[in-house]
Request: fold
Amino acid sequence: MTDDLRSISENSNAWPFAEARSVLKRIGNKTPEKGYVLFETGYGPSGLPHIGTFAEVARTSMVRHAFQQLSDIPTKLFAFSDDMDGLRKVPDNVPNKDMLEKHLNKPLSEVPDPFGTHESFGYHNNDRLKAFLDSFGFEYDFKSSTEMYTTGVFDEALMALLANYEKVMGIMLPSLREERSQTYSPFLPICPETRHVLQVPVVETNVDAGTIVYEREDGKKVETLVTGGHCKLQWKPDWAMRWHALDVDYEMSGKDLIDSVKLSGRIRQALGSPDRVGFSYELFLDDNGEKISKSRGNGLAVEEWLRYAPQESLSQFMYGKPKTAKRLFFDVIPKNVDEYLTHVEKFPGQDLAKQVENPAWHIHGGKPPHESAHLSYNILLNLASVCHTEDKAVLWHFISRYRPDATPENAPILDKLVEYAINYYQDFIRPNKQYRKPTEGEAEAMADLLVQLKELPTDTEPSDIQSVVYEIGKRETFPELRAWFKALYEILLGQSEGPRMGSFIALYGIPESITLIERALAGEDLAS
Reply:
């Protein structure tokens, strides 16, 4: 790392650097006793990885990379799976639901795999998580709650919590409903007979023996060790205990968990270690502005986004304003693709200070790709719109004429973008197209445009074509230029918004654009 990069990183306004500087301050700018700075993300394996999982790991990875520019202290990222949690309900999206019903309340790592491919349901979903993270190239160490509890990694921290049992209860009880507080205990014993994770009252603690005594529903009192996997913790004390046991330095979480973070932080301090650094990110909203919920299924899945756009555009969405609530719906995809492409295109010409402020630097760990042949996603969408095709070769016919130096082989980013644009057009634009006929005034303006276009050489620059279109729109027929362009979009493309017309006509071709306008003026159906 150059001294210039470190100096610039120390003063960068990019949010990952601000977070990284907070971590550096927390550790006093020196290597922790464990030998590295620990970043963590958590995962509940009762369901499959989702877009929130991607968001948290992607953002945490950006902070980790920013930290590595500020310091030579080693870092690790733990992807932690709470696979010892009890299965509370049968998920909707799995086979063999009747079989799962028989294993409710058992640790997920002990519930049989309904897919029949793994030792347990928890391990099946753990592998899905790892495959999910690996597919995006994330660097992480996977950690299993079951393994940590049963191999003794958490034993010392569990004993610390037992020794501070009353302090922890004093922190937790005021946050609970009165009925819940009557039976609450941070320890959840695992019944040796049923293997159920029990939510039962603890009637006695014995720090010297390392045990608790709990009362079963049948009234029987049972003594059990809190170590060795005989108990797990309620999730808020569990979160705190994990931070304490692993000495977690950084973990972010959703805004809906602010109160839980505060409680867990207080519990960690009661166990004798300082709180971690992290921020609360805003939640994603659906098309109606409502909070996205996994159970309601009102969000946008990662695999859906990746049908229409590259992974990097999703990272672009995650990078921007993480503390602001954002709509996560299909219509945000084109904007984020083009923003990402713009950042990548600008990167090589920027000085170092500007580069580290560029989202592409954070998305690609300081090494964004570069490809000279560049067309915007929106332009490609509109090209697909007039071509009405699912064949990439048709779009490449126009692209190759517009950019003779570009081929699918030497412009792989553009080639993949063509495929994404066709998918998006077929699924979202084509079904909603509504062409209309031009008014008398609009028809006159379009006829004038025809005359002007026929006088232009076929290789006229997009900016010169745009000037021609612009001048025609200044006539009195249109109250404002926007009305002229909107008319062209609705009449020629069947949509209320569209591309910069000069760029579009240059890409589609002046002769082809002339034919398109002539067909519209003749009243032909442009939808076919």
In short: The CA atoms of residues 184 and 201 lie 6 Å apart.
